[in-house]
Design brief:
The chain has about 325 residues and is α/β, with parallel strands linked by helices. Helices cover about 35% and strands about 15% of the residues. The strands form three sheets. Strands 2-1-3-12-4 form a five-stranded mixed sheet. Strands 8-7-9-5-10 form a five-stranded mixed sheet. The protein is globular. The two termini are about 35 Å apart. About 5% of the residues have low confidence.
Length: about 325
């Protein structure tokens, strides 16, 4: 599998990105920041694009979906990577700065729950057990494996997860706990998924969660836990490209996005980069461990960019979040 998961590259890219500002006459770079989950896809596309367009520098940073949207809505970015859809407060922030955006799904991901390979007991978990472990009421109280399931060892459980600016954190808490951002706070957090990988890989008592590509890249050092959406652990499903694609890995499958500043498309290098992203991205998505969009949805996304359709298909109430993306984007 192609590797695009290099935190040093991300840090360097972010440092370069701060050297110029969108719309201030410095057009050498396409500036991107945001989700660590989407980073491997966008970084892979950026590498290929720069091979073809040697005169353009594409900088890709990692600040989490929330951090990316903050910068994007201040006009500091051309593109924001996001592992969740944009919130109403972020839409309002963009509107206050006269920033219009195009929302483009680029792949599907499966949030992967992982333990250390030396963990011999957690061969599956239910969503209810994950909720018991991660809900706010668990803080300082559910601290041992034996409290999660009878028969598991009476040893501490050490938790690792994305930071609160992460779209993965937002999605996981809503899917598992039932309320976005509702979580215990006594866990090791980082916006860089590589830090979480290192933590779980080095601790037999650890459990963490992050995007599927980071598990794929490190599967020799980690063990993915099959997840059951009901009480029957025999029905637990491992995350894989197939289970994410066919919808059986539920409720932890989700789309991931890029958001494009419409004004930035007046610069040829940004317009060309997005065109390249939509043409080459589907192949690169699979190479870095994510699930490509089906042909119908990809065609709708391509048309959305071609016609410069702005805004989001998701309502503030969130009631449409469970509808197929094909239906949501076709309606627009």
């Amino acid at each position: 599998m192609r590797s695009a998961l290099r935190p040093a590259d991300a840090a360097a890219a972010l440092a370069l990105a701060t050297m110029s500002t969108v719309g201030c006459g410095s057009y050498q770079a396409v500036q991107i920041d945001g989700s660590s989950t989407v980073y491997p896809i966008t970084e892979a596309v950026a590498e290929e694009f720069q091979r073809e367009q040697s005169g353009t520098r594409v900088t890709v940073g990692i600040s989490g979906s929330g951090g990316g949207f903050q910068r994007f809505c201040r006009g500091e970015l051309d593109i924001s990577n996001a592992s969740r859809s944009i919130r109403q407060t972020e839409i309002d922030a963009c509107r206050s700065q006269q920033i219009e955006f195009i929302e483009l799904p680029v792949a599907y991901d499966g949030i992967t729950v992982v333990v250390n390979p030396k963990n011999t007991w957690a061969s599956s978990m239910t969503v209810a057990e994950l909720k018991k472990l991660w809900e706010p009421e668990a803080e300082g109280k559910v601290t041992r494996w034996s409290q999660i399931r009878e028969g598991w060892p009476d040893q501490e459980v050490h938790l690792f997860g994305p930071g609160v600016d992460s779209g993965t954190f937002d999605y996981f808490t809503e899917a598992v706990v039932g309320t976005e951002d509702a979580s215990r706070g006594d866990f090791t957090s980082s916006e860089d998924d590589n830090v979480l990988v290192q933590g779980v890989a080095g601790d037999q008592l650890a459990l963490g969660f992050f995007g599927y590509a980071y598990y794929e890249e490190n599967r020799e050092r980690l063990k993915a836990v099959p997840i059951a959406n009901g009480d029957d652990t025999s029905a637990a499903v491992l995350p894989s490209q197939e289970s994410v694609r066919n919808g059986t890995y539920t409720p932890l499958s989700r789309p991931v996005f890029i958001y494009v500043n419409v004004a930035s498309l007046d610069r040829p290098e940004v317009d060309q980069f997005i065109d390249f992203y939509l043409r080459q991205g589907p192949t690169l998505v699979s190479e870095v461990g994510y699930v490509r969009l089906n042909d119908e949805l990809q065609a709708l996304v391509n048309q959305r960019f071609k016609t410069r359709k702005t805004g989001t298909v998701f309502t503030a109430e969130g009631g449409d979040a469970k509808k197929p993306l094909e239906e949501l984007y076709a309606d627009q």
